[in-house]
Amino acid sequence: MSTVSTSVPADLSMVERSAYRKVDLRIAAVLFGCFVLSFIDRVNISFAHLQMRQDIGLTDGQYGFAIGLLFFSYVLFEVPSNLLMVRIGARKTLSRIMILWGIVSTLTFAVQTPAHLYVARLALGAAEAGFFPGALLFFTHWYPAKRRARVIGIFALAVPVSGFVGGPLSGWILHAMNDVGGMHAWRWLFVIEGIPSIIVGALLYFFLTERPADACWLTDAEKTLITGALAAEQLAKGGDAASHRFGVALKTPRLYIAALVYTAVPWVANVITYWSPAIIRQAGAANVFNVGLFSMIPYAIGAVCMLLICRSSDMRLERRWHWAACGTLAAISLVALTFVMNDLTLTLTAITFMTIGFLGIAALFFTIPLAYLSGTAAAGGLAMISALGQLAGSLAPMVIGQVKQHTGSVAGGLYVVAAVVMAAVLIVLLLIPAQSLHERR
């Protein structure tokens, strides 16, 4: 009897490790690669504008406005996209999104005026809408809550990886491709970085598997283990089917509290992705290629720290204090950056700590609403939270752009971002109780 009782847990452990190793490779790793391409295509304008502003007559205020426009169209289409995914599946939805954003990003090479850029950014936001919350929803079809911070952390790792890869690539394109074929380098940047998304999006349709029960690459034991873990989680959430509908979720105050908290994520993201190249250049980087190389440093260090933070959060099954600590670090770094922007080393140090904090709050955030949303409520709720947060976040680049245009410095805008982040930290600690997240206390 003792032999049986000790061997069964060991066997189950081996099956579990094997199952999730396969899921990591076939689901998490694939969507990770897609998100890398997505983020490169979204933020490559931060490098392109270093040259394109002279060609199309773009002011700092217009640049900030163009960045913010993406989020308005993103918001309009995000909830419908996620609800449609529930009906037609992840393969069709995520593939369609990738192909469309790749086409729009590539065609941005043709803009001639600020107005053209506004249209391009609106189109990119509409095309990309739904990818991030759709991928998060897709993870809930494969991973139970105890594994979710880790996998979302891996997925969010695409942000630093895109900076690590996209920064030097964008810098090299701007440095080496000018007047090749009679076209300016910033135009080549959009073409070279947009086409891969079209190709990968077409392949994605044939590669993804909708649910564990459909996975021919899992054994029967592995399918049973994963579906059983997900079913047990649904029972633990409690409530009847109606409580998991989107309409019911819309009446839940904590949905809007979560959206208010999420505002901090795009506010900090906008500083890092859209303004840090210009800040690094101003601090003393010799040329755009060096800007790309220096931009690797915060992302490389931030990526390692983010994985450690997510691991700690999963091991302790604690979200709120981990999130609050990361948010506080980001806010302090934003303020510190305003005092050191004339020193390249100190600027990179401040941006690195800011990136660590940002990646922490970005990776951990969606473990919070996923703890109490499921079914259609999760599909629409995640999209609604993301949409509302992104809508509020769209103000960040506009505020920073206008401040820089009128004062010659981004410092005032950074103070506003820091205040938004600290307000979100207080909301998490005061208005989201630990018991609602099923945390260990």
TrEMBL record:
Record protein name field: Tartrate transporter
Subcellular location: Membrane
Residues of the Major facilitator superfamily (MFS) profile domain: 27-436
GO terms of molecular function: transmembrane transporter activity
One Pfam family it belongs to: MFS_1
GO terms for cellular component: membrane
Species this chain originates from: Paraburkholderia fynbosensis
Keyword annotations from UniProtKB, A to Z: Membrane, Transmembrane, Transmembrane helix, Transport
Transmembrane segments: 23-43, 63-86, 93-112, 118-139, 151-174, 186-208, 255-276, 288-309, 321-340, 346-366, 378-400, 412-432
Domain of life from the UniProt record: Bacteria
Membrane-related topology note: Multi-pass membrane protein
Record carries keyword Oxidoreductase: no
